[in-house]
Amino acid sequence: MAKQWVPAAADSGRRLDTKTNSGSSVRNSQKTENILLKTFRSVFPPFVVFLIVVGGWELVARAADIKPYLLPKPTDIVKAAADNWSNLMVSVGTTVSEAVFGFLASVVLGVVLAVLLAMNKMIEKSVYPYAIILQTIPIVAIAPIIVIWFGAGLNAIVIISFLISFFPILSNTLIGLNSTDQNMKNLFYLYNATKLQTIIRLRIPAALPYIVAGLKISCSMSVIGAIVGEYIAGIGGGKGGLGYAITVASTRLQTAYLFACGLSAAVLGIVFFLLINQLSKWLLSSWHESEMRN
Amino acid sequence: MAKQWVPAAADSGRRLDTKTNSGSSVRNSQKTENILLKTFRSVFPPFVVFLIVVGGWELVARAADIKPYLLPKPTDIVKAAADNWSNLMVSVGTTVSEAVFGFLASVVLGVVLAVLLAMNKMIEKSVYPYAIILQTIPIVAIAPIIVIWFGAGLNAIVIISFLISFFPILSNTLIGLNSTDQNMKNLFYLYNATKLQTIIRLRIPAALPYIVAGLKISCSMSVIGAIVGEYIAGIGGGKGGLGYAITVASTRLQTAYLFACGLSAAVLGIVFFLLINQLSKWLLSSWHESEMRN
Amino acid sequence: ACGNNNNSAVSAGTPEGGKVSAKVTTVTNWFAQAEHGGVYAALEEGFYKDAGLDMTITPGGPQISATQIVASGKAEFGMAQADEILLARQNGIPLVALFASFQTNPQGLVVHKDAGIASPDNLHGKSVYVSSGAGYWEYLKKAYSLSDVKQMAYTGSAAPFLADSNVVLQGYVTSEPFEMKNQNVDVDFLLNADFGYNPYGNVLFTTEDYLKKHGDVVKAFVEATAKGFEAYKTDYKTINEAIQKESPDMTTEKLTYASETMMPLVFDGDAKEHGVGYMSKERWETLAKQMTDTGLLDKMPDVSEVYTDEYFTK
Amino acid sequence: MSMTTTNELTTAAIPASGSSVLVSLNQVGKVYPNGTVAVQNANLAVTEGEFLCFVGPSGCGKSTIFNMITGLTSHTEGGLSVLGTTPFQARRHNEIAFVFQEHTLLPWTNLLENVTLPLKLRGIPRKTRIEEGQRVLELVGLKDYMKVLPRQLSGGMKMRVSIARALISRPKLLLMDEPFGALDEITRQTLQDELLRIWQQDKQMTVLFITHNVFEAVFLSTRVVVMTPRPGKIAQVVDIPQPFPRNETFRTAHEFSDYVRLISGALQH
Amino acid sequence: MSMTTTNELTTAAIPASGSSVLVSLNQVGKVYPNGTVAVQNANLAVTEGEFLCFVGPSGCGKSTIFNMITGLTSHTEGGLSVLGTTPFQARRHNEIAFVFQEHTLLPWTNLLENVTLPLKLRGIPRKTRIEEGQRVLELVGLKDYMKVLPRQLSGGMKMRVSIARALISRPKLLLMDEPFGALDEITRQTLQDELLRIWQQDKQMTVLFITHNVFEAVFLSTRVVVMTPRPGKIAQVVDIPQPFPRNETFRTAHEFSDYVRLISGALQH
Ligand SMILES: Nc1ncnc2c1ncn2[C@@H]1O[C@H](COP(=O)(O)OP(=O)(O)OP(=O)(O)O)[C@@H](O)[C@H]1O
Ligand SMILES: Nc1ncnc2c1ncn2[C@@H]1O[C@H](COP(=O)(O)OP(=O)(O)OP(=O)(O)O)[C@@H](O)[C@H]1O
Ligand SMILES: [Mg+2]
Ligand SMILES: [Mg+2]
Q1: How does pLDDT run across A163-195, given as a tens digit for each residue?
Q2: What highest taxon heads this organism's lineage (chains D, E) (predicted)?
Q3: Residue A201 contacts D where some CB pair is shorter than 8 Å
Q4: Contact at CB, A1 and E77, closer than 8 angstroms
Q5: What is the ipTM score, two decimals?
């Protein structure tokens, strides 16, 4: 009889039970250690990949003698960023504020419009195509009108950022609102809930995973939107954002600084994303599979 | 005793029971009528809104005497489109093929990458930030490199279209894959399913509503991507797409034709969207709330 | 008219008999237009072929950087403004200017006739749409103390200009006045060259490396291109038809207007004496100094390395 | 033994004298769009204050009848009236409550919020809501779990929360679809007693109750509706004219086993 | 009357002679992260070929014990072995099957696909899968519903599909969490008989079975594990050393009611 005793909480098998973490019989001091270990584990792999990517890039660029004006080395980029640090920071600051406004507008209008559409199929059918037009019509085509109607600079840029980041929120929210479990809808229906109550107390909470998925897409797109906005409707000069900086670096053939700006934009996008990610964890971790610890 | 008999299937109350439609005791001829009526009902409201929007636009433009080079009237746009019909069709054709390639690449790579990321948290943590970078780094910043590496024209354009439309699919699919119901995951785990089986037989089908939501966002973005690509890395000449046509029309002050091109892009986007919508209906209508008839 | 030849540099060579034979590509700076007339003429009339060059002309576009494409070796020859070449060299891209299409740069500012702007001195308080980072604007800003001018990003659209008579737009003297006339807008044109900033326009260039290795190919290219411009001068109508094939949306009138406007800018000045395409050290030095003064260049470059005039023997 | 059996037609025709008819089915039929005939020719009149149990084999159409009464699905044949009006109007009176066959708890909010949802939807103030919530959670033995999320409960506990939610609104018509199926005998008996107590307190409440347990049906109800499958029909309606309150004495009485045997026989038939 | 009651400690120590121990719990405990002590000091040795029923009040930790045995959740105290190895290794033998308390059907595919899933995951060819699928669907009386999607089924039918899925893989160890709770008496008895028949055919199969129905527990099992709540403990293990096959005679025998009374007493305690 080959019996094998397994001591508690020492089994290494894959744990599907998201309800448990490392087991609460473990003592407190060990818990703190665990948290440190976990943080380390979650920070370490991306860090290693980062090192590999950046190191590899640097090495390949050096080895193959890739010209910096074609593809600058990481060191070139860092140097360019350091040399222009104060300019870069001003640009980043400008872009951040534009992107934030654009994103907030997207969130508010996207969710509100989705709710309106979800409440009435007829409205959805009539209005939704225009939302798609808003997303598909090339910004360059309507940029002049935006500039003329809303004035160049911040206004136009925020509107362009909004136009670019708004649709993913609208679309995802709408699908989420339409995905509510039939049993729960029946529950609210039978308890005589008004449409508004059903939306607020049932359909929006149930759609949260979808809404958050939309936010995750939109948040970094709002950065792109701000940059595109600066590019096509921006004001030049001292307070130009990253879009302006990129154009200038591009015409001046300062490839390394161009990359520094581009990567700043990417970092901005990632920071926005991580913030939304935190929000998502906070909203969903207690009840939705997508954010449960495991 | 105020009793009120309700004859069958004649109740006008709100029907939450998606399982039933108009009641199958209705005779066949009536059914056909119903279908016609339904089609009419679903086509009519958007059509009315269309008339109102376009008519209103025309009237306001005429009344306020808005200059055609600022905001052309619908009639101007139609005329411009008719005058340049064959050019326009060539441009549309070019853009369609670029967008389709870009979109297909997004779908395949987006879903495949999401599956890889979903299979391993470590990979997800390490690789996902780079996906965000891909989406956030301004295309203008890397356009010259894309052109040098892949050559101007179709290649570069498809890649740009891909870069722009890829993230929504990746992000939504990943969230969807992570949303699988715990009970079902347990089921597969206990039946000793391999990771691949769990992905294919459980997590992907369960994630379909999210994947489709991603497709709905991406499909029209691939059109935008193709246009941006043409604008940035396109080649002019006879076979230029809508992006080229827009650039040219813009410098030539042909605002009406510019709008005709922009609206063609929008129509393209809507057509793409409707196709994906049909796909979604076909995939989900039998089991997921978001696409059940009601 | 697209596609790049990856192996073209390899195939360049000089077989016996002293005649070159090479497959080469030229990247222009925009979609095919009259301003590129000389190059297309040389292609159409077979001057490149006669010189042993199997030439492909790739039109540029808004974000297609001829300097980077040539620097990467995907093309042998490119087209850019003189100030761009100086900037490129400062950023480590070893380009050499070979041939200046325009003695007088066609770039300038379009202004409404009724705005009363006769010189940059009158620009105070106006909105000016210029490409972000443009060299001439830095010069004008400094030379005319235009810090109170509202600078806007130019993205190719003229709509803001049409909407407001206080708006000033960048443009080409060969193009924008014609378009504006078509829209019944009365405009004046301030040519940058008239106000002190005159980099050679549409300069054809190659890399130092290519020049060193394939001097004979370069020579053949420059000579054939010069012949092309001479041919274009007399026969621009037929060449324009070829250009129209590349850019079908160009009207004949537009091309004609451009051709007629550009001739003095190409063939007057030093070109009269030294031949079309000629470049002088003084002009390059003036430009380099202007750019250094405005801060576009960190330090004065040695202009003798920037261009070569050894193919101008007249 | 005063056991009476009425067939469906006479039942529909003769409501218990004096009280008003709350729910009435007249030749009601239901065909699902896929062609399944779930219910056929169902006749039934439920008078105020009744406690009516439905028994019948799995898939015979019990839940379907409930869904038609609540208006969640439409009947495709016959006539149906609830609280003197259409099922779709009836729910507007806020006098109907129900327990679904599958517990339907909102996963994002705690038990108290889940249980007090019907009150919240009616705009009852927070203080009352909390009091009432505590009351009904106590009733089902889950007072300690007020702040817990549904996913931390066992299967039986979730069902008990559903029951608490139905009881909180003090309904006039209470529909329960196998509420005690997931419960152990003791919890079940406690809840049976509680339910009868509440029902008796307020003689106005009418209960429709689906169960698979014939003992339970006999113990609880004034009448038992026996259904047969394919297509779902009401086979028999058995009166249980035994006095309330009922207790262990009744459970062990001879009549009790007689009723059980009668109904079991009708089911087997 | 040959009724023996062993307390938990001795049960763990003395497995039935001869056969090997399939599942063994040694002072097993489970504390959920939120602090709930779900199971405490559980000792149990299940030998091959046993039919073991678990009874106990709602929330006493029955499902938790099952989850620990299948490795879905880890035990936080004591030692646990399944099929001679860890719970996490055990499932790799492909010899465990189970019915969850809540039916877990894939909504996007039909009953046949749902039922044959375990075979598909093992790469069994399509033809065999269809044959086996039809066999087990017939067993639970749902052969006509092969091509139907789960949402078109009644509550009890869904549960029967879950049962069919568990039976299809002819497991060595079968865990069933209240499989018959949602079924009417007749379907329930049919399935009980079927289950016993399958179990007896193949003397190697061991069944762990959670139920709220003490009659069912006594009728089916060789031993009944009685649990008490807060914290969940094994209060008593009752042997039912009655011969198989069992039938109506056993159900009406005096021993039967004695066992029922004994276990009900242990539960009430
Ligand atoms: N949405 C639906 N579409 C088609 N058929 C359905 C649907 N819902 C239920 N049915 C069918 O209707 C019949 C009756 O179902 P119902 O749910 O009313 O049974 P039930 O008596 O409640 O059974 P149980 O006791 O198992 O819950 C079944 O045969 C079932 O397959
Ligand atoms: N994920 C969880 N997190 C915290 N507590 C839990 C969790 N799952 C179950 N519990 C608690 O553990 C205890 C036992 O739960 P379990 O599901 O094992 O009960 P059970 O005996 O199966 O009851 P039932 O017969 O009602 O299904 C309960 O008090 C429950 O609240
Ligand atoms: Mg039912
Ligand atoms: Mg349980």
Answers
A1: 989 999 999 999 899 888 888 998 998 888 888
A2: Bacteria
A3: yes
A4: no
A5: 0.84
Residues from chain A contacting residue C155 (CB–CB below 8 Å):
140, 143, 231-232
Reported confidence tier of residue B236, pLDDT bands at 50, 70, 90: low
> Which residue from D85, D48, D20, D15 is spatially nearest to D172, judged by alpha carbons?
D48
Average pLDDT over residues D86-112: 86
Give me the domain span that covers residue D88: 1-95+174-269
The mean pLDDT value of chain A amounts to 81
Ligand closest to CA E185: 1
Nearest to C87 among A147, A247, A253 (CB): A253
pLDDT tens digits, one per residue of E38-72: 888 888 999 888 899 999 888 888 999 999 998 88
Q: Is D148 on the interface with A (CB under 8 A)?
A: no
Overall number of domains in chain A: 2
Min distance A220 CA to chain C CA atoms (Å):
23
Domain shared by E45 and E116, yes or no: no
Determine the distance separating the centroid of ligand 2 and the alpha carbon of E73, expressed in angstroms.
12
Q: What is the pLDDT of residues A70-111, one digit of tens each?
A: 788 899 899 999 988 988 998 999 999 999 999 999 999 999
Alpha-carbon dihedral sign for residues A270, A271, A276, A277: positive
- Per-residue confidence band for B2, with pLDDT thresholds at 50, 70 and 90: very low
Do the Cβ atoms of B167 and B134 come closer than 8 Å? yes
B201 and B116 in a single domain? The answer is yes
| Joined tokens for residue C250 | 């160009």
Q: What is the residue-wise DSSP string for B79-95?
A: HHHHHTHHHHHHHHHHH
Residues B44, B95 within the same domain: no
Compute CA distances A7 → A62, E9, E21, E75, whole Å. 54, 18, 18, 9
Q: Whose CA is nearest to atom 2 of ligand 2?
A: D152
Decide if E79 touches A, using CB distance below 8 A: yes
SS (H, E, C) C201-233: EEEEEEEHHHHHHCHHHHHHHHHHHHHHHHHHH
Pairwise CA distance, residues B50 & C281, whole Å = 64
Cut 0.95: pTM above it: no
Cβ distance D32 to B24 less than 8 Å, yes or no, reads yes
Which parts of chain E sit beneath pLDDT 50?
Answer: 1-17
List CB contacts of C211: < 8 A, sequence separation 6 or more.
Answer: C96, C218, C308
Q: What are phi and psi of D38, to 5 degrees?
A: -85, -40
Residue C313: predicted pLDDT = 58
Q: Are residues D210 and D90 in the same domain?
A: yes
Chain A positions in Cβ-Cβ contact with residue C157 (cut-off 8 Å): 140, 143-144
Touching status, chains C and E (3+ beta-carbon pairs under 8 Å): no
Could you give the percent of chain B with pLDDT greater than 70? 85
CA E75 to chain centre: 19
Q: Which domain holds residue B148?
A: 73-284
Which of E140, E170, E200 delimits the end of a domain?
A: E170
Q: What is the number of CB-based contacts under 8 A between chain A and chain D? A: 52
In sign, the C-alpha dihedral spanning B232, B237, B242, B246 is: positive
| Sheet-wide strand order for D77-82 | D37-47, D21-31, D77-82
Same-domain pairing of B149 and B272? yes
**pLDDT surpasses 70 at A203:** yes
Regarding the beta carbon of E58 and ligand 2, being less than 6 Å apart is answered yes
DSSP D16: P
Average pLDDT, chain B: 80
Q: Tell me, yes or no, whether E115 and E226 share the same domain.
A: no
Average pLDDT for B92-98: 92
State the average pLDDT over residues D156-166: 89
Of ligand 2's listed atoms, the one at least distance from the Cα of D156 is 26
CB contact under 8 A, E80 and A20: no
